[in-house]
Design goal:
The protein folds into two domains: 127 residues, Rossmann fold, CATH 3.40.50.2300; 193 residues, Hypothetical protein af1432 (Orthogonal Bundle). 60% of the residues lie in helices and 7% in strands. The chain is built from 16 helices and five strands. A five-stranded parallel beta sheet has the order 2-1-3-4-5, with helices on both faces. It is rod-shaped. Bound molecules: fe (ii) ion (FE2). The site of fe (ii) ion has 5 residues, from loops. Fe (ii) ion binds next to loops.
C-alpha cells in the first residue's frame, strides 16, 4: 500500500520550522510541525513517521536527547539533524549515535531535500532487505519440513522392506519361531546392563534383529538340513555373515548395526569367523549379541538338542567366558535374574507373525523401552 510520506519537523524557531514545512508540503509530504523535543517524542509515539528533521539546540530537551529516544523506539528511523555553524562537533556526535545526516545553518532547503531523498532510498533498501530475509526464512522452514517428511518416508520404507526380509527368513526357517524376538530382547537387556544407551542401543538391537539376514542366501539343502553339516556345507553356511553384510551395507541408517551382522560369529579367543578377530577388536555390539544368541540357542529346543534349563545355560556361558565370549559381558549377563529372562521367553511363545512384525517395527524405529 502506498501512502504519502510523513515527516516530523522539530525546531523551536517558527521561521525555520515553517520554511521547511512549507517546502515539503508543496512536495506532497504529510508534515507535522512541533516546537520542542518533548512534543516530538509524543507525536512519534502516537504515529508512524518516515523521517524526522530536528534542530540540535533547543530549550529543555535538545535534539541529541530526542535522537536517542527515537532510535530507542525505532532503530531504523532516519533522523536528520540541523545545527549551527559553531556546533558541528555536536552534529558529529549525533552521527555517532545513529543520526542519518546533518545540515549546517544557514542552509538551502534543497540540501535538506537531498538528505531526505537519500534517507528514503536507504529506508526502502532496508525494507526490501528485511522482506527478502523474511521470505527466505519462510522458504527455509518450508524446505526443512519437506526434507523431514521425505526422511520419515524413506525410513518407513526401509522399515517395511526389512520387515519383509525378516518375515521371509522366519517363514523359511519355520523351526526358529520366536528366536528373533528373544535375541532382540536379551540383547537389549544385556546392552542396558552394560550402560549402552540412546542411538548406540538402537544400533545394537537393530543388529540383533538383522543378525542372520544373510541366511537368505544359503541354499535350502544346507539351511534346512535335518542332519549335521559336512565341512563344505559349513563353509557355505558361514558365509551368511558376509552375505548379510553385503546385503545391508548400502543402507546408511543401518550402518552402525552392520557390525553385529558381520561379526556375530567372532570369538573372544580369535577362533571365530569371518575375520578371526579377537578380544576387544570385535565390535562391542557383536560381543554382546554373541552371548545373547548363545543363551537363546542353549535354552531352546532344536532338532539336534534338548533345551537346557537356565542355570545350566549360565554354567555353559561361564565356561566359555574368555574362550568364546567376552568375560565382562558374561558377568553382566549373569547379573540378570532368571525371572526376567523367563518373562522374555514366555512372551516369545505368544509370538505370532503379528507380534514379530510389531516388534520389528518397534526395534527399527529406535523407540526404546526399559
Ligand atoms: Fe548367525
Amino acid at each position: 500500500m502506498s501512502h504519502s510520506r510523513k515527516i516530523l519537523i522539530v525546531d523551536d524557531e517558527p521561521i525555520i520550522r515553517d520554511l521547511i514545512g512549507r517546502y515539503f508540503t508543496r512536495r506532497n509530504y504529510e508534515v507535522s510541525l512541533v516546537s520542542n523535543a518533548h512534543e516530538a517524542l509524543m507525536a512519534f509515539q502516537k504515529e508512524k513517521f518516515d523521517i524526522a528533521i530536528t534542530d540540535i539546540k533547543m530549550p529543555d530537551y535538545d535534539g541529541k536527547w530526542l535522537l536517542r529516544q527515537i532510535l530507542n523506539e525505532d532503530p531504523n528511523m532516519a533522523v536528520i539533524m540541523i545545527t549551527g555553524m559553531d556546533d558541528t562537533k555536536e552534529a558529529v556526535d549525533c552521527l555517532r549515535l545513529g543520526a542519518y545526516d546533518y545540515i549546517v545553518k544557514p542552509f538551502d532547503v534543497e540540501e535538506i531535500r537531498i538528505a531526505v531523498d537519500r534517507a528514503h532510498e536507504r529506508k526502502s533498501l532496508l525494507l526490501e532487505k528485511q522482506n527478502y530475509q523474511a521470505k527466505l526464512e519462510i522458504k527455509v522452514r518450508e524446505r526443512t519440513l519437506e526434507l523431514l517428511r521425505a526422511y520419515e518416508e524413506i525410513e518407513l520404507t526401509y522399515q517395511k522392506t526389512l520387515e519383509a526380509l525378516i518375515t521371509a527368513l522366519d517363514v523359511r526357517e519355520k523351526s526358529t519361531g520366536g528366536h528373533s524376538k528373544r535375541v532382540v530382547e536379551y540383547t537389549r537387556l544385556l546392552a542396558g546392563k552394560l550402560r549402552i544407551r540412546g542411538p548406540q542401543l538402537t544400533s545394537v538391537t537393530r543388529g540383533a534383529l538383522l543378525h542372520d539376514v544373510g541366511k537368505i542366501g544359503i541354499p535350502d539343502g544346507i539351511l534346512l538340513k535335518p542332519g549335521p553339516l559336512s565341512d563344505e556345507e559349513w563353509s557355505i553356511m558361514r558365509q551368511h555373515t558376509l552375505i548379510g553384510y553385503h546385503m545391508l551395507k548400502g543402507i546408511k541408517f543401518l550402518k552402525p548395526a552392520m557390525n553385529v551382522v558381520k561379526y556375530h560369529h567372532e570369538r573372544w579367543d580369535g577362533k571365530g569367523y569371518p575375520e578371526g578377530l579377537s578380544g576387544e577388536a570385535i565390535p562391542l555390539g557383536a560381543r554382546i549379541f554373541a552371548v545373547a544368541d548363545s543363551f537363546d540357542a542353549i535354552t531352546s529346543h532344536r532338532v539336534y538338542q534338548r533345551a537346557h534349563p537356565m542355570d545350566e545355560a549360565r554354567t555353559i556361558l561361564a565356561e566359555e567366558a574368555g574362550k568364546q565370549f567376552d568375560p565382562k559381558i558374561v558377568e553382566a549377563f549373569d547379573s540378570i535374574p532368571n525371572r526376567v529372562l523367563e518373562r522374555i521367553r514366555l512372551s516369545s511363545r505368544r509370538s505370532s507373525a503379528l507380534v514379530v512384525a510389531r516388534m520389528v517395527r518397534h526395534t527399527l524405529s529406535g523407540v526404546e523401552t526399559a
